[in-house]
């Protein structure tokens, strides 16, 4: 926004626009730093430190660029257009540093993202293997329960068959006892 002052010649409007833009980009840089600081994966602390260092470099370049823009606008406000134009090369230099650091950070973040994707893929493969093992264990458990159920069923059936056989023998014995009792009663009747 500070370059627009050469066209609009309205320093106050350009200064207000610049301050809004500077405030917004500074706020977003601070939020980004906070989000990186809150990242808690201990295995990636070296990478986190590298990103934080790069963010620090970006913030320095950004603050220097913002300061140079304020100087440019103040020169223009004091009608020193030549001095304002001279500051443009300094701003461009800081802007170039800022863009180079942003590009480097983006490359580093893409690298991190691809590593995270690879790690997530490896973890998904590991979890898939665990799912297969758990599934296999469930099948074995079902087979064991089924086998145990069959064995228990056979034991119950055998006990039931033995009980029926014992009941049949008891009936037969009861019939013979009743027949013998009838014979004894008949003999008693004949003897009396």
Rg, rounded, reads 47 Å
Helix-residue proportion:
over 70%
- Please indicate the percent range of residues in DSSP E strands (runs of 2 or more): under 5%
In N-to-C order, the SSE pattern is HHHH
Strand pairing plus helix content: what structural class?
A: mainly alpha
Largest sheet: none
Say how many strands there are.
0
Uncertain segments: none
Mean pLDDT, to the nearest integer, reads: 85
Distance between the termini: 140 Å
Assign an overall shape: rod-shaped
Helix count, DSSP H or I runs of 4 or more residues:
4
**Quaternary status:** single chain
SSE order and pairing:
Elements: H1 5-8, H2 11-38, H3 45-77, H4 81-191
Helix pairs in contact: 2-3, 3-4
Structural features, described:
The protein has 4 helices and no strands. With 192 residues, the chain is mainly alpha-helical. Helix 2 (11-38) packs antiparallel against helix 3 (45-77) and helix 3 runs antiparallel to helix 4. The chain is rod-shaped, with a radius of gyration of 47 Å. The model has no long low-confidence stretch (mean pLDDT 85).
């Amino acid at each position: 926004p500070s370059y627009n002052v050469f066209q609009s010649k309205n320093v106050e409007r350009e200064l207000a626009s610049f301050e809004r833009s500077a405030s917004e980009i500074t706020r977003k840089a601070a939020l980004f730093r906070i989000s990186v600081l809150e990242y808690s994966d201990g295995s990636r602390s070296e990478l986190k430190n590298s990103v934080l260092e790069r963010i620090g470099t970006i913030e320095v370049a950004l603050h220097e660029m913002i300061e140079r823009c304020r100087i440019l606008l103040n020169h223009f406000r004091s009608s020193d257009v030549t001095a304002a134009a001279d500051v443009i090369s300094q701003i461009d230099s800081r802007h170039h540093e800022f863009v180079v650091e942003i590009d480097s950070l983006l490359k580093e973040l893409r690298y991190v993202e691809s590593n995270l994707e690879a790690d997530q893929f490896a973890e998904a493969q590991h979890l898939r293997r665990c799912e297969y093992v758990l599934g296999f264990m469930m099948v074995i458990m079902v087979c064991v329960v089924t086998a145990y159920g069959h064995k228990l069923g056979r034991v119950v059936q055998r006990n039931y068959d033995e009980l029926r056989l014992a009941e049949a023998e008891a009936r037969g014995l009861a019939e013979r006892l009743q027949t013998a009792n009838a014979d004894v009663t008949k003999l008693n009747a004949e003897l009396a």
